[in-house]
Amino acid sequence: MPSKELPVADEEPVVVLTLGRLMPWRLVPFLRAAHPAEEEVLAEPGLLASTGFGRLPRLVSTFSVWRSAAEMRDYAYRSGGTHREAVARDRAHPFHRHSAFIRFRPYASAGNWAGRDPLVDAT
Q1: Pick from 59, 73, 61: which is nearest to 7 by CA?
Q2: Domain that holds residue 24
Q3: Is residue 100 situated within a structural domain?
Q4: What is the CATH number of the domain that holds 59?
Q5: Residue 6 in domain
Q6: Of 54, 75, 100, 114, whose CB has the highest number of CB atoms within 10 Å?
Q7: Burial class (CB in 10 A: 0-12, 13-18, 19+), 86
Q8: For the chain, how many structural domains are there in total?
Q9: What is the pLDDT along the chain (123 residues), one digit of tens a residue?
Q10: Are 84 and 72 in contact, with CB atoms under 8 Å apart?
């Protein structure tokens, strides 16, 4: 494991995994904040594939494949964006007991997702 974050070039593809151990009493506020961000991300041209999974009311998670790190960062941190607003709400009054936001640099892929390999579009 590297001792510090390794930089990813703007044009490189990236895969993002989010994990959250939701506090059950924060489920409704979480869903209200997450829903607009979920709708917005589906319209992002750089999003190649995504899914959400979990075990409500405790575990929530997402997995997404992006054509480029720059497009992923633009969605995540865009001024006035719904994701940025959801993050601000979480920081003001946390939704999760524990959470992780992990970015991966994909180096290979095999198989398919919905009949195609989404990383073919990124490489």
Answers
A1: 73
A2: 14-106
A3: yes
A4: 3.30.70.100
A5: no
A6: 75
A7: buried
A8: 1
A9: 567 777 889 999 999 999 999 999 999 999 999 999 999 999 999 999 999 998 887 899 999 999 999 999 999 999 999 999 999 999 999 999 999 989 999 988 888 888 888 888 666
A10: no
